[in-house]
Amino acid sequence: MIREYINGLINENNEKLNSLDHQLKEQTEKLNCAQEWLESLQAESNTDKNIFSPRADNNDLEEKIIDVQKHIDKTKQEINYIKSFMETYLAKKEEYDGLLEELDGMCETETRKDHGEEIRETLKEKRTNNNIFIELYNKTELCLDLLYSDRTRCKKELKNMKFVIQNMIDSIDEG
After folding, report:
1. d(CA 17, CA 21)
2. What does the pLDDT read at residue 22?
3. 158/85 same-domain check
4. How far apart, in whole angstroms, are the C-alpha atoms of residue 134 and residue 123?
5. From the first residue on, what is the mean pLDDT of each consecutive set of 10 residues in the chain (175 residues)?
6. What is the DSSP string of 5-47?
7. Could you tell me the end-to-end alpha-carbon distance of the chain, in angstroms, rounded to an integer?
8. Is the pTM of this model over 0.85?
9. Main-chain dihedrals φ then ψ at residue 51, nearest 5 degrees
């Protein structure tokens, strides 16, 4: 659920980044065109080809150059504005990626905890089983000792061992 939410944020962020990247490319193209236009106007103003009323043409040309320069400055500002937005969204992207990594780490930790819990349970079962086998071994030793001295008690211990073994078999079948 959390992963889906973060992935949704990442997708929204990526869409904004793609949109800003598209805008940046458009503004860069505008800037390149305006700079080419400015260069051609400046080249035209530098030539002495103006035969007919150079003052009138020169003023119009200078005004066009000033307008194009203003357009270039405005486009540069827009590019910087878009870049600052992109930096913000790139920082968000890094933050979201960090959140995903943290979430993955938490999931791994939970998995390790679950796995650790399983290992502890298995060890506990093995200890219990070992204790039962140790108890059975000790009772067998006791029965061997009692076999010649106290047959009644030996029989009783063997019946207890049979009961313990039957319980073990039943618990194994259930598990």
Report:
1. 6
2. 93
3. no
4. 16
5. 81 90 92 90 71 57 88 90 86 85 73 65 71 78 80 84 82 74
6. HHHHHHHHHHHHHHHHHHHHHHHHHHHHHHHHHHHHHHHHHHS
7. 33
8. no
9. -90, -40
What is the per-residue pLDDT for 59? 74
Both 165 and 89 in one domain: the answer is no
Cα separation, 137 vs 63, in Å, equals 109
160 and 146 Cβ atoms separated by less than 8 Å: no
Count the domains in the chain. Answer: 2
| pLDDT value for 43 | 85
Residue with tokens 């150059």: 65
Give, in order, the Cα–Cα distances in Å from 40 to each of 19, 55, 62: 32, 19, 12
Phi and psi, residue 150, nearest 5°: -140, 85
Q: What is the pLDDT of residue 105?
A: 77
Please tell me whether residues 20 and 74 are part of one structural domain: yes
Write down the pLDDT at residue 108. Answer: 65
Q: Which domain holds residue 153?
A: 124-174
- How wide is the angle at C-alpha 73 spanned by C-alphas 91 and 27, nearest 5°? 55
